[in-house]
Specification:
The complex is a heterotrimer of chains A (438), B (328) and C (356). In chain A, a hairpin with a 2-residue loop joins strand 2 and strand 3. Chain A contains 15 helices and 18 strands. In chain B, strands 1-2 form a two-stranded antiparallel sheet. The N and C termini of chain B lie far apart (57 Å). In chain B, strand 1 and strand 2 form a beta hairpin. Chain B is globular and about 60 Å long. Chain B is mainly α and 328 residues long. In chain B, helix 11 runs parallel beside helix 13. Chain C is mainly alpha-helical and 356 residues long. The chains are: A alpha/beta (438), B mainly alpha (328), C mainly alpha (356). Chains A and B meet through helix 8, strand 9, helix 9 and helix 10 of A and helix 1, helix 3, strand 2 and helix 12 of B.
Chain lengths: 438, 328, 356
């Protein structure tokens, strides 16, 4: 008798706990946001996915918002005769700190927020995991940020599964290598002329990430053919925060040029210490952190004369480049880094949706493949790997050099007849000049 | 001299490291090329000294708090980061002079550390694991607060002393030298405190045997508070002295934490001279790697860990640690 | 005969599970896990729970090594990563299905366990904890040095799925979780487990009783490696990528947080910790900016209020220990269920527990 009563009570307790768990689970799946009062047409939901707490995601978001605002101000995107606005969904992937987090965030965006398209992704390892989720759901994924060739190799090798992925911006690391050599040659020409050194010595600093291994392998062979001499190869890790030892060694090696390929935060440490230690060698190459953003503040105004490949700058690559650059700087008070290329990606997406006339993923893929769009960074045409084409008529990238806090374009300066208005000659840092003139 | 430097570096590029035999050969050849060897030894020495000074300043505080209060304080480097960001905020945003923002932030961080200790750590102090996780989550909380209020951008702290110095034919920034000086000053002060004052005797007694010290009438919790204060203050000082050499970012506490833990354990837990020596050993290992094998410089994290492991396998209680049978 | 067994099962069920509130809760939670897909087929929720299942095994394996045997390792991701990488390599190069690759990966993790055991035999307490930090760091160096085999910082991708659909993956991970955790719990409560506990408490005394502690410590390392390895293999096949993120220091620390919040040295504690905290972190996406901060504050408050973890805190509330036979009883029983001794009811429960 008594036992029965206790049992009931226990059942009650258990039931309460069960209900509590269920309620909390139900609360865990957030509801869709309520639709606006008088919906003119269902918006097209676009997820912008990136590490939003960091500058990379921040610029992805800013670039995308600019494009979406412009498109919506013009009435929206025409789908099947109906004007539909774009609605951006901010997806914080936290990918710099946790890869499973990134994949879960994409799944959540697709299943809970019901987004139609995903734009973004930055850390290559995370992008590989994220695109798998997007492909499972057959959702169009426009990559903006990751340059690893392995990503689009998947599209090539398993087209039916991965065809919903397009690397919109920037181009693959395969093209970053030759472009960075072009920048090196540009700098070397200036060094030869101004310092009077026929065969400059080059110190190669390549960050140790897989994507740059081809550069490390190619540089010692390719640089001598450009009539230069390689004095050493340093491979710091992407997250190294102190390059004092490396730079001291470079100073001792007697290099005239430092050819640096850096994508991680090491780029800031490098540029700053390079100026602080007054290393007597000009610096040129790829330094992702120096492409814009808060580089100048990040280094505490050091890193003057650091030169890098960049994609968005204040020169008229197309008629859209300068207006975009100016309004970005005006709006946010900082220079866009290449991840703000989401601006072009959203426009390309809008065009593709209009061309497809529906939101069907396969129709969108076909429409995307027909892209020929002149955006802020150049002309976008995709190849069979869903990679943007590289070349003087398509995307080339730009060489920029920081001069007193302003990124100034120095390349292309006549390469294949290309020279944009506002391009300046590469400049040798004064302490380098001083060292070699004496 | 420049010629020699060139020669040693090019062959590294052309030949890929295949096996340990190659590594050994290279080391031997380097040593054989005496001219280069001496030049390089000099550089390794100076650079190792610089880099060791940075680690040592952080390691001393970490070691002290473990030795006296038996707290594995994983928040240690987070306090260092907090202090750096506070200086940045006071100096850049509120435009206070550096001379005012440095002491202000050191005091503020020390107070924050004491409050955290008093209300979060002290009540559960006897549980080693719980304390460790609490300090860890505290560090994560600090990281998040900084991430939210400053954003995930990179920043640079202005140097206390700008400029460069020529020392023994090697140029280094004055800030690096300042770090070394600070470490030595801190060390001397410490020695004075521990061996010349009554409090110091009490601290040492606590580190040796807490119960006995307590029975002898030493105020256990007050001394623990004092130690926490000194330790957090040292972390904050490091934020002022060491942080300008690095880049400020919200996850900058993780890498030094690992190195500091390795240095402390290498020198022997609770031993101050051990932790300083440990810091320098790790620094020399890293710098040596960069100079001998420039194309493998990304392995600096792995090499310092390997060095720590090897030394611990030979001396399980670290260089100067005492293994106490009584403790667990 | 059948009715006899049915009655016996029912009697045991009533006597052993329904009698104790904590066991009832665990049982109900277990049932809930299996009927969850009937309530919702939300892919995102299933994904979160699948990952929770995998991490639960991982955390429980750490508890076996650290909580039970006292080898407080900071480098537990070594096992996870080795198993993840080796099952990924095996799957990619030879096309073997997950059924084969996961156990093979786990066996390699056992070998890694023996490797980590070497310093474990020689180093004590915090020395071992900090030395174990070195292993993932060194492995990371190796991975970055040989990108041709390991994929460098990109990791290995193109691995086959754990199951054909998310639902099968969910059930695979949940049943694997139940079976493996039960196995770990069996080990921890067996005679061998008793020796593990004893080693944690006083290794010298155990050695003095004529027990080969080195053997048992190695056994603990390899058992723990085995289960962590199984979790790692499942993770690789579920995420379909095995990258350097499996070696992140933060992952090593995360399982420690889960375990200690759930209750260390209990085996079920870490499982509870993971199932509460992992979905919590996901749920906190509603406040993306404050997500991690809220999480950290919750953990701090939880540990401050219940330093022994959630599971023993709840146990202290809803259950009483019989003063005579030390058996646990429901809070509501006036008499002990075993020896019928009267249970004290006057004792007030203290919400804030101070240190021992």
């Amino acid at each position: 008798m008594k036992g029965k009563k206790w049992l009931n009570r226990r059942v009650f307790v258990a039931a309460t706990i069960l209900t509590a768990m269920l309620v909390s689970l139900a609360a865990g799946c957030p509801r869709r946001q309520p639709a606006p009062a008088v919906p003119p047409a269902a918006p097209i939901r676009v997820a912008v996915a990136g590490p939003m707490a960091f500058i990379h995601g921040d610029h992805q978001w800013k670039g995308a918002v600019m494009a979406a605002e412009e498109i919506n101000a013009a009435g929206g995107v025409t789908v099947g005769g109906q004007k539909r606005p774009l609605e951006l969904v901010k997806v914080d992937t936290n990918e710099l700190l946790s890869v499973p987090d990134a994949a879960s965030a994409i799944e959540r965006a697709i299943t809970v927020d019901k987004v139609d398209v995903i734009v973004g992704g930055f850390r290559s390892e995370a992008v590989l995991a994220m695109m798998d989720v997007a492909m499972d759901h057959r959702v169009l994924h426009l990559g903006v940020g990751a340059i690893s060739p392995d990503i689009t190799a998947r599209v090539y090798n398993d087209y039916n599964r991965y065809k919903y992925y397009f690397r919109v911006f920037p181009y693959s690391a395969v093209h970053v290598v030759p472009t960075s050599f072009l920048l090196l040659q540009e700098a070397a020409a200036v060094v030869r002329e101004e310092l009077g050194i026929a065969k400059p010595k080059v110190a190669v600093v390549v960050e140790k990430v897989l994507g740059f291994d081809p550069v490390a392998a190619a540089a010692p062979k390719a640089i001598p053919t450009m009539n230069m001499e390689v004095v050493g190869l340093w491979r710091p890790s992407a997250t190294a925060t102190d390059l004092t030892a490396e730079l001291t060694a470079i100073r001792k090696s007697g290099a005239h040029i430092i050819f640096s390929i850096l994508s991680g935060p090491v780029g800031i440490a490098y540029a700053r210490q390079w100026e602080e230690m007054q290393i007597p060698a000009v610096s040129v190459g790829v330094n992702v952190e120096a492409m814009g953003g808060k580089f100048w503040q990040a280094t505490g105004n050091k890193g003057n004369y650091e030169a890098t490949l960049a994609f968005l700058a204040n020169v008229p690559v197309t008629e859209k480049s300068v207006p975009f650059f100016k309004s970005f700087v005006e709006k946010h008070g900082e220079y866009p880094i290449y991840l703000a290329g989401t601006y072009d990606a959203v426009y390309i997406l809008a065009e593709a949706i209009e061309r497809a006339g529906s939101m069907d993923a396969d129709a969108l893929v076909t429409a995307m493949k027909a892209t020929d769009y002149k955006g802020a960074a150049g002309r976008f045409v995709f190849n069979e790997r869903h990679d943007p084409l590289w070349g003087p008529e398509h995307l080339t990238g730009l060489g920029i050099q920081w001069i007193d806090g302003v990124p100034t374009v120095f390349w292309p300066n006549g390469w294949k007849g290309l020279r944009y208005e506002g391009t300046q000659r590469f400049r040798i840092a004064p302490w380098v000049l001083e060292y070699w003139k004496n | 001299m420049r010629q020699g430097g060139a020669a040693f570096s090019t062959d590294c590029v052309l030949r890929r490291p295949a096996a340990s035999i190659y590594v050994w050969e290279t080391v031997m050849r380097r040593i054989a090329e005496r001219g280069i060897y001496w030049k390089m030894l000099e550089q390794v020495f100076i650079n190792g000294l610089i880099s060791g000074g940075k680690y040592a300043l952080l390691a001393v505080g970490f070691s002290l708090i473990y030795g006296v209060a038996r707290i594995m304080n994983l928040t240690h480097t987070a306090f260092y980061m907090l202090s750096a960001f506070l200086i940045f905020y006071l100096h850049q945003s509120l435009a206070l002079p550096l001379a005012a923002s440095l002491p202000l932030s050191i005091v503020a961080v020390t107070l924050i550390g004491l409050v955290c200790y008093k209300f979060i750590i002290a009540p559960v102090r006897e549980r080693f694991t719980t304390v460790m996780i609490l300090t860890l989550t505290l560090a994560i909380a600090i990281q998040e607060v900084i991430l939210i209020s400053f954003g995930g951008f990179f920043r640079t702290l202005p140097k206390v002393i700008p400029g460069m110095i020529q020392l023994a034919g090697i140029r280094m920034t004055s800030q690096h030298l300042l770090t070394l000086v600070t470490v030595s000053v801190v060390l001397v002060c410490f020695w004075m405190l521990l061996f010349k004052t009554k409090t110091g005797i009490a601290i040492r007694a606590m580190a040796m045997d807490r119960e006995a010290a307590n029975l002898m009438g030493m105020p256990e919790s007050r001394i623990a508070m004092l130690t926490v204060g000194i330790s957090v203050g040292l972390a904050a000082l490091a934020g002022a002295v060491v942080a300008p050499l690095y880049i400020l970012e919200p996850v900058m506490w993780m890498h030094p934490l690992v190195v500091v833990m390795a240095a402390v354990i290498l020198g022997g837990l609770g031993s101050l001279k051990g932790s300083i020596l440990g810091a320098f050993i790790l620094a020399f290992a890293e710098v040596g790697l960069i100079f001998l094998f420039p194309h493998l410089s990304f392995l600096r994290g792995a090499i310092s860990m390997a060095v720590m492991l090897v030394i611990l396998m030979i001396r399980p209680e670290g260089l100067f640690g005492v293994f106490m049978e009584g403790e667990r | 005969m059948i009715s006899y067994w049915a009655r016996k099962v029912f009697r045991d069920f009533r006597g052993e599970i329904l009698e104790l509130p904590t066991r009832t809760i665990l049982f109900a939670a277990g049932i809930l896990l299996f009927v969850l897909p009937l309530l919702t087929q939300d892919l995102y929720l299933l994904r979160v729970m699948t990952l929770a299942g995998i991490f639960a095994v991982f955390a429980a394996s750490w508890d076996l090594l650290a909580g039970v045997c006292g080898q407080f390792s900071f480098g537990h991701t070594l096992f996870f990563a080795i198993a993840a990488y080796s099952s990924a390599m095996l799957n990619i190069h030879s096309g073997l299905p997950p059924v084969v690759t996961i156990p093979v990966g786990a066996i390699l993790a056992v070998l890694a366990g023996l490797l980590l055991g070497l310093p474990g035999l020689r180093l004590k307490g915090p020395y071992f904890s900090l030395a174990s930090l070195a292993f993932p760091a060194i492995l990371l160096g190796v991975i970055i040095t040989f990108p041709r085999f390991t994929g460098g910082e990109l990791g290995l991708s193109g691995i086959s799925r754990l199951g054909a659909t998310r639902l099968t993956e969910y059930y695979i991970s949940q049943s694997a979780m139940l079976i493996l955790v039960l196995a770990i719990w069996k080990i921890a409560t067996s005679k061998t487990g008793l020796i593990f506990h004893a080693i944690r408490e006083d290794e010298i005394a155990v050695r003095a009783s004529g027990i080969n502690t080195n053997f048992y410590k190695m056994l603990a390392f390899s058992c723990s490696g085995l289960f962590a390895g199984l979790a790692g293999g499942m993770y690789a096949h579920f995420m379909r990528i095995a990258g350097p993120s499996t070696l992140d220091l933060i992952l090593s620390l995360q399982i420690i947080v889960w375990t200690i919040v759930g209750g260390i040295a209990t085996i079920y504690g870490p499982v509870i910790g993971v199932y509460l905290l992992y979905p919590l972190v996901e749920f906190l996406r509603v406040v993306p900016q404050l997500r991690t901060l809220t999480f950290a504050l919750i953990v701090i408050v939880v540990l401050r209020v219940m330093p022994e973890g959630i599971s023993s805190w709840v146990q202290d509330i809803v259950e009483r220990e019989c003063p005579r036979c030390k058996e646990r009883n429901s809070l509501f029983r006036p008499y002990c269920r075993i020896c019928n001794t009267e249970l004290e009811h006057g004792k007030r429960f203290r919400l804030m527990k101070r240190g021992a």
